[in-house]
Amino acid sequence: MLPAMADGNGSRRLRIAALAALAVGVAIQLVPIDRSNPPVESEISAPPEVREILERACYDCHSHETVWPWYGYLAPASWLLAYDVGEGREHMNFSTWNRYTPKKQAKKLEEIPEEVDEGNMPPWFYLPLHPEARLDDADRETLRRWAQASQPSPASP
Q1: Which of 14, 62, 126, 128 qualifies as a FRET site for 154, CA 20 to 30 Å off?
Q2: pTM score, two decimals?
Q3: What is the average per-residue pLDDT within 104-131?
Q4: Distance from C-alpha of 144 to C-alpha of 117, rounded to nearest angstrom
Q5: Contact 94, 44 (CB under 8 A)
């Protein structure tokens, strides 16, 4: 008779734990997350083939044109997504390119091929749900040539 009582108590504990987990799951959905896309102030100047690559592989995190996917509305995934977008926009934001000084723009243009060639961008964890963002060798070369050509020429002495 003792095992039957244990099963009854164990089953009750399991139901209580499941209900508590469900309640927590519902409650965390109420935590507000900023999924805003402020107005675009200015765009970085780029030819169409470069803009296509940037929009496909970079803009979700590095612009005010983020496409918020369905899982961006479910906590805790929404928290991670909002954090990553915030960090991406803080590091480089193509929608506020005009805020950067020419020196800062040059530095950012220098960083683009470095980050892409080192495999840091787009991040590995972004690619499984966004396979279209994967960059091939031609994409990387296009970005590299554009970034180098867009660098301001050194001032003559």
Answers
A1: 62
A2: 0.79
A3: 94
A4: 9
A5: yes
